[in-house]
């Protein structure tokens, strides 16, 4: 009788082991699921805490890029920096990389002028070592507010990868005389020509351009120092019909 009990108990040992293993696995799965649910429930709180910590650090420091603002000297931060006001924080936002891109993309930027097609307005000296650098403002792109005589930078209609700088001579609805006769500028277009007509590839060759190709209006020469000035609207009348 005792022998039978021993044999039976030996037969039950593997079954108990399997049961214990399955029980341990199920408990681990339940605990893991419970932990995941708790993490999901606490997720927004953790994100909010991290966001507050980041804001606290941002308010305590002003980030400046020396490459972007070479004239600014960074002061050494004290061991216990004082939080700056909202205006200073906004200035630091403007000076970071993304805001620089947004500013140039939305409001304007500085770009060089190559060639002599707009001489003497730009690059009047052929032997000059430095090209003119101009400020390109983009407020005019709001509802395409352009006027006769505006100097604009636009994508070349024959090669969209290239950019050209010309002066608006005629707007939509105007009639202008060209080699082939009198041309009416269609709606949503303008007629552009270079100030140096002898060496300018402009609307006389490719016709009126859509206003959507314009990147902005040139308002000032900002470099070199002796060339700093405002760009005047000079409207040539010889071409208008």
UniProtKB/TrEMBL annotation:
The active site is at residues 117, 166. Keywords: Hydrolase, Membrane, Mitochondrion, Mitochondrion inner membrane, Protease, Transmembrane, Transmembrane helix. One of its GO terms (biological process) is signal peptide processing. Residues 27-46 are annotated as: Disordered. Residues 183-223 form the Peptidase S26 domain. Transmembrane segments: none annotated. InterPro entries: IMP2, LexA/Signal_pep-like_sf, Pept_S26A_signal_pept_1, Peptidase_S26. One of its GO terms (cellular component) is mitochondrial inner membrane peptidase complex. Coiled coil: none annotated. It comes from the Eukaryota. GO terms for molecular function: serine-type endopeptidase activity. Belongs to the peptidase S26 family. IMP2 subfamily. This is Mitochondrial inner membrane protease subunit 2.
